[in-house]
Amino acid sequence: MKIFFALFSLTLAITGQEKPNLIVIMTDDMGYADVGFNGCKDIPTPHIDSIASNGVKFTSGYVAYSVCGPSRAAFMTGRYGQRFGFERNPQYRTQDENMGLPLGEDTIASALRKVGYYSGVIGKWHLGATKKHHPLKRGFQEFYGHLGGGHQYMPEMLNIEDSYAAKDEPQSYRTWILKDHKAVPPRKYLTDDFSDEAVSFIERNHNKPFFLFLSYNAPHTPLQAPQKYLDRFINLKEGKRRTYAAMVSAVDDGVGRVLSSLTKNQINQNTIVFFLSDNGGPSTKNGSNNAPLRGNKGDAWEGGWRVPFAVQWPLRLPKGTEYDHPVVSLDIMATIAARAGAPISNDRPLDGVNLIPFLTGKKEGAPHQGIFLRKFDSGSTAIRSGNHKLVTYEKKAFTGLYDLREDIGETKNIRDQSPEEISRLKMLWENWNKSNIDPVFKGLIHTPAWQKKRNQATRKKAKTNHK
Ligand code: CA
User: Are 219 and 337 within one domain?
Assistant: First the structure.
């Protein structure tokens, strides 16, 4: 008991305070411009915006990949997915233990568990659909969600009871929701269901340090919203944007309920709340908007991986500030690990940085020398360093250098003006890439259904060009 007490005191001495709770609210395929704090006009997001106005808005907030799975794997480990071969969207395979977040990697939840945190994930998992990849095997104590990369939203669409009986990605969209290991009968519109569960999690666990990952699959396709949310947007033309707006609005309501629950339970001050999207918007698919950024989900252009990103922590962070140095979703784990005194294994070093000293002004300068992207299958790369961004597309022998301070839309290629800067950025990228490995599993793009879709698209394009 004495030893336990001494260790407890030591931990408190190291952290110098009570451990903060962590809530990460992640949306799926939301555009950079689709929150009020980034200038959105047609979809009010007052609750999401309140995170930025009560804390810090990141103007250059990135994720570590421009599609869902690898972006989430990187966020969840605090390490670039290329370090451990997670560089593709996994196929939905309930028996393939290679298909998901490698079992040797620590997660935010497993690291925090060592220092007494209680963790839950609500919503989309997408880090492997085998029983060994289940969130409860990866450090979490609670799970309420779906294992695959997306889901149908309406209860009547969920007609496969057993998640492990689904044979592919489209079938996985129709499974019942898992509560820990048990399938539960469909309850209501999925976004509202996840919000209910998030509030319940806070109500049940507010008296101990916790980590809640609220992983909305909205506003990822399929585009579906109940009339009550659609009715908020009668001014918008019927179509993708209107349904998308309704879906975002449902998320915003949920964020509001989560924030109110923190206040009600008197833990608002010492809870760090991050909000971000897992990648940029695929605008033609779901009606999202990445303006003024160039490109979409999947791209190495800014629209692929620069996302709406904000954090509040009333106890420590200044209110209503903007932070312009580039930050990345990998920083979330480094930040909470530092504040909670969670041990990090030496052979799996974090790629993120504890942001708190930078946000309070204790540390000056940029947290990162560079933020890196490598897309193995398309042969594209990118690095953001300072105001500069270098993009390469190997297959097209393309190199682009942009000054994002002057040209956020990547419209003016200045590569011929700055050969030295290109060399510097290439060297930084090569140094980063030295510790990377090739992908360890095949992705969704290797499934016959995906290839058929791609061939159809190519044929359609050829036909259009011929005209
Ligand atoms: Ca996504």
Answer: yes
